[in-house]
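Field reference: sequence -> structure
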Amino acid sequence: MRPVPNRPGFGFRPHKRYALGAYRRPPGYYFRQWDVGVTLPGFFLAQSYWLTAGTYGLSPPPPGTQWIRVDSDALLVTIATGRVLQVVPNIFY
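Structure field:
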């Protein structure tokens, strides 16, 4: 498991990891570690990457935000801009 940095946005370490099925990266996408404050590319805002609110030990997203799956991480992003507000690393396998 990747260590969880002690910085804003890394609010908690998941108590459990989840198998969520096959994951398809968008064409041209390469792996990277996401950080709070960066903007997620628009193709990740498609509903096929959205996580169901309140599942996987994640808190329900505030209005205007959504949990998004990117590789093995869950990212809380602002829907309007794609700005990353919180990162939960390595929650999926």
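Note: The chain has a mean pLDDT of 78.
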